[in-house]
Amino acid sequence: MKQLAHPIPLRNTVFWVTTRAAVSVLAVGAVTLLCNRVIQVNATTVGFIYLVAILVVATVWGFIESVAASVVAMLCFNYFFLPPVGQFTIADPQNWVALFAFLATSLVASRLSTITKRQAEEAIHREQDIEKLYSFSRAILLIDAAQSAPAQLARQISQVFDSPSVAIYDAQQDQVFWGGPAETPGVQDALKPVALRGTRAWDEATRHNILPVNLGGKSIGALAISESPIAEAALESLANLVAIGLERARSAEAASRAEVSRQSEELKSTLLDAIAHEFKTPLTSIKAAASGLRSHPGASLEERAELLLVVEEESDRLSRLVTEAIQMARIEAGNIRLNLGPVRLERVAEGAVHDLGDRISDRQVSVVIPSGTPEALADGQLLGLVIRHLLDNALKYSPPGTPIELTAETKPEHVIVKVSDRGPGVSDKDRKRVFEKFFRARNHKDKMPGSGMGLAIAREVVQAHKGEIWVEARPGGGAVFSISLPVAEGVSA
After folding, report:
1. Which of 130, 134, 76, 133 is nearest to 102 (CA)?
2. 84: cis peptide before it, omega within 30°?
3. In the chain, where are the structural domains located?
């Protein structure tokens, strides 16, 4: 590997320069023929025409071509227009001065024209490079945190700089990421050494520029880009932008991990508070029943049976709460285990209503599952958890004494369960956030008990079933929470 930035194909360059020089000489010959045979002009006019032709050559092609044209123009000027005509001699010494002044003027003008042309081209290229670097810097701000940052950066470089092959080596991951339509074998072997040395290189075998990606004086990777007309300064700036993009992605990832950790701690605290609150009610009932049995040893069999029934029901409720707490922890950890099978919706719905117990003693909760409603493909226990959360939400946010309706309808390949209430409903602004963790509407936050986790858990469970959950306004006031589940094929109620 040679320490070259961008080699020039010498053979092709010589061929094209030689070709353009020959064309320039032919152009001078055409001017000579025109002025000597077609139109009769004096030597001064011919000199100016030659000079214009030479300036055109210098502007269009370059200095080497214009030098060839200048030398040939001087010889033609001497031979065809300065006396004695037809000889490479000059009778008047003043014409020697004019001839060499013409040659010097041609060369200087050609050089100035070439320099001006080169500077204009460089300015255009610099402007184009700056525009491309600006586009790439904007792309860095749009990096998707859910995808690999080095891979996205490589693709953006390929698109912005129109390079067919781009590779980025990330030292932290010790991995090469490709961008563009082509992956060039052998490039990946040259990236790591460049990152370790911290010096740029040109890989002749693959024709790639390879640059170290440094941040704060420390090498964090390397960038390889296939041969393309990019200025040296632009390449260095590109490598610096790659370093910024990688560091920005890592900072965002670290911030995301910190936020996840913070939310996890908040979740644990919230769940503990919610569990403690939910456990308190059945434990209080069990303790009261036990105290009644102990303080009234002579109670009748009917009274004792009633107290024992309270203990049994509240123990079942406590057991269910423990099971739900374990399920919620698994759901939050992303460890939902589904025991899928055909589920009769009316059975799950009636079980959910029964589990709410005394909480619906003053409510009319109607369950309307039309005959012929197909069974859902679901985990019956988790589906019951979802319906209980929806019913619990309806109980909390609708006025006492108002009815709650649980209905179902069938759609192609899906069955939809709806829970309707007569509460204040959900505003358009809150509908997108109502299923987020810990979210609670501001106007109800301090009035209603709860952790703000019920609907979030319901959403996670429904999505694990490859279903959907949403909320709509109920005609006449209130809210309708709906879940859509796949139908158990070949099974109907």
Report:
1. 76
2. yes
3. 10-133, 145-257, 262-332, 341-492
